[in-house]
Amino acid sequence: MTIHPDGFTGALMAVESFRDGRAVLHGPGGCRGYHCFVAPKCYSKAGHGDYEKYSVPYFFGHPRVPCTYMDEEDYIHGSGSKIEESLPVLCSENDVFNVFIRSPGAALIGDNISDAIERAGCSGKAMAVEESLISQPFSSSYDHTVRKVIQWLDPEKKDTIPGTVNILGLPITSNDWESALEDLRHLLDLMGLKVISSPGAGCSSLDVKESVAAEFNVIVSSEYCARTAVYYEERYGIPAISCDCGAPVGFDAVREWAETIASRVGKSAVLVEELIRDRKEMVFRHIKGSLYTNKVKCNDFVAMGDGSVILPLIGWLYDYLGMVPASVTPSPGGDDSTASRIRSLLKSMGSEDALHSDPQSGRTDFVFADGHTAESLEMTGHCRKGVDIGFPSLARTRFLPRPIYGISGAMYLLDEIFSRE
Amino acid sequence: MAMYGKGGIGKSTVSANISYLLAGLGEKVLQIGCDPKHDSTRLLLDGKEQTTVLDYIRRTAPYDRRLEDIVLNGVRGIRCVEAGGPEPGIGCAGRGILSTFDTLKNLGIDEMDLSVKLYDVLGDVVCGGFAVPLRNEYADGVYLVTSGEFMSVYAANNILKGIRNFDKGIPRVAGIILNCRGMENESDIVERFAEAVGLPIVARVPRSGLFALAESAGRTLAELYPDSDEAKEFGKVAAHILGIKEDRKRLLESRPLDDAQMGRIAKGERVAGEPAGDLSEQGACRICMRRPSEKKVSAENRIVPSCATAGAVYGCISVSDAVTIVHGPRSCAHIMSALKSIAEIKRGDRTDLQSARIRSTEMDDTVSVFGGAGSLEQRIRDLILEGHKNFFVVTSCVSGIIGDNTIDVVNAISNEHPEMYFRVIEADGNITGDMGNGYVASADAMLDAVDRSLCPENMTVNIIAERYLFRRGGDSDLRAPGLFSELGIRVNCRFMYDTTLDSIKGLRLGKMTFMASNDTEAKRIADLVKTRADIRIEEEPLPVGLGAYRRFHERVGRAFGIEGIAKDVYLRGERRYLSETERLRKKLEGKRVLIENRYTADMDWLLELLSDLGTTVIKIGMGPRHMWKQHPELRYGEMGIPFAQDYSVGTLISDISELEPDIVLTDSGLTSLDVRSIGYIRPDPGIEGVLEYGRRLANLMSVPVVEGWRRRS
Prior knowledge:
Chain A has helices at about 5-15, 30-40, 50-55, 70-75, 80-90, 105-110, 115-120, 140-155, 175-190, 205-210, 225-235, 250-265, 270-290, 305-320, 335-350, 370-380, 405-420, and strands spanning about 20-25, 95-100, 125-130, 165-170, 195, 215-220, 240, 300-305, 325-330, 365-370, 385-390.
């Protein structure tokens, strides 16, 4: 199983989630290799001629996550001069803003990056996340960094545009987040709501400036946006709408998510409900039409992931497909109420022992986990099928839609499950 | 203003009294205690202790921290902060001060309505951490608090050195506060010192029983005995501070004395107030020291793109019956396990994953202050309870920087469990070098296990330093041992590929030992195996390409007395190679090839293949980070192949334009060239890997020069 990423990676990915944002790693090259690979895997901003354009110091051919390449002497004497030297190169592009994130080692040294940025006159093009987020939860660090970037962009207050929302809490490390965003936009559109922006999920600095005109923020996965939502509410008076059932994962949670939003904003979710009914009808026909009808019934499964995702997921798999949780492990960073709901839900299924039990203690039918864990456990025979619901597998390049959120997400999950019926 | 002085000299009492009086004069005062014993503000808080910043950040995640949790309101509205510090002997108190100031700044202390900030700072060691208040953005000026004891005066002089190192030429010193201990002629030495360094004695606080009375009441003397002589002395300092606020020209330059001059002061002599010679930083702390340095990231050949910890971890996880603990943040272990997972998934068909052998001590930002030994010990003990018996502990840059004594922690547990296996590799992230260094260091550690009493067994071999990252399919697993199984020879140990401690222990059972390749790390590991285990290493590595394949079979045939079998196997391979290259030649004959070689040490197989396919190599461009095994002039000059060093992408592009090659081969992952180009890496041992590559080269001549996905339209 892959060890869960921490706040360091969370911060880097949060910066990279902005269309015109670029994470700058203040640290050694050893911390860069993985992140300049994973960033474009999650959100590719590749362009023609990148290699030639970025064959310059700090990038060395790779456009994402440039690095100051700290070495041993920097740990002893500080590396202020390296930061100062990097700023003219990094800030030379007009359509990009840079956010410095310290590596774990650099966080110990305490170079004053913000001062260096100010001294270089680059305050409009660069900022630093000063806190060290090492070994902190990935999700809450992602949230923290998104909030910091918004604070730095400091949008001016705008008049509220009725019927508009921002989507919060959709991380770019979620499986095929771009399709998920499209799906959720469509659902909101069916309720007569226009999405202004999606901070943390492919929005630009310009979008952030427009985002403060939204009437509401709608929350997808609360772990990734709780603090950002509070900031929007306190600073701009934009209330957030979240759903007790967690994220819109599986038909039931999607319906509840839509109904919750509709009732708060005074709109109707009828069209969303109709769409879900259509999809469910299609699923019914497919299952009934198969040679061996619903062989997944009574199959057991392992679920590892963000609490907001696995709460609706285990409920849906249990109720909709008759599957039983064998092991459930929420990732670090979830809130207490979600954890408590997961506990209650498992108890209601008679599966309270599944919580935090060893996912590899025996062979299960399905594993719902981050991409590497799902594939590894399937490869090693720990399960019949591993389904990628979190940090995506970097061993594959995918093209077909594979989101986990929204109606498309429910169809993806069913497709994966029934591929090993 | 900062109050600096030797530990125990009474800085906190002095500071609290001055803060109290300043607040009485209408100032909005913040007092920050920068001493691990964290009692600076007690007298301002009615004798109560407050939560220190370092305790607070230890138990509160960065994004949940609030200023009001660590800034308390004291008497007369004085804002009080205590930095705190680690347990003695653990972590770095100086780093703790840095963390405190960073935290306060991040939480917005600069936005508070304050008119005077008073820093009460331990001045025994003026390292980077304890010197933070000296930085311009914090204290404007510094008072030296001293008694008449020589060590106290000595500490005051050291503080002056620290000030001078920080802001050369900018006056920063406010003066001296003499806090008497009741010694005979106590003022004399301080006066001589003050005269020598050119500073005024702003106040002379007499030794007095009133301090003890005030202490026991949890109040300042100035509050309880406002009309006392002692309080009046503190009043002089408060007035002096307000004077400096009005006119910063009252601050003086730091003019510390050298050791000889201090010796004269101790002897009762007067010293003319001349600045001493070069006084570099003393007592520098490895963790918290700051000093500007001119270091640039300007050239690729000056950077380290990987770290030794990763190399050591990848080496250690080749041992299937051990767990490898990364003593560092979770991010290090995540990165290593994720990259290994990618490799394993791409290879497929494995049942025992090396990525699953990695664990982390999950160091967070508090370890810089409190150290990480506790988390390491706990992690090892937990793993023992889980049933693990063999451990590698690899240190990261974080544990390296904070100077954790990993070896002692592991030794202590090892002594409790002599039946278990423990090895520590102090890789320390990129401090000790790159991935190769860590890989070699892990080999060094593992070789401790070799039983030197064993003798080689017939028909057995070892393979050392095997690495096949990011290859598709599981063939690579089989190709190296397949070379030997065809000859009826057993592989005894695949050292550092997939092995066990028992297998390493029996390394000497192998009659012949081959390097998997001849890159730099493989050679270094070969040297280690040779010296540490007294094992002879074959000069040539496992063969790649026909020439090496022939020499390999001749050598192995002779060594095991199976010349006939070896020759038959070779001839079968040769026939296959010749027939396949003959077929591929039809597409490649006469083609002109340009090679970009940024990293690959061994290209003999490629040059041989290209020759066998009838192509002509027109130039080899060697990247700035290239570590050639033989100087290119000797190697390629003699072969008549032009070469270039420090080869850049720009040069490659201009060469393509000028030389007009038919094929460009790169090892840098460059995919954007508008010519027929393809990447290359050293193939698996034997001839099949080379032939696979040959087929791809031939296919390159058939496919579009620019594939559809790369076309702009």
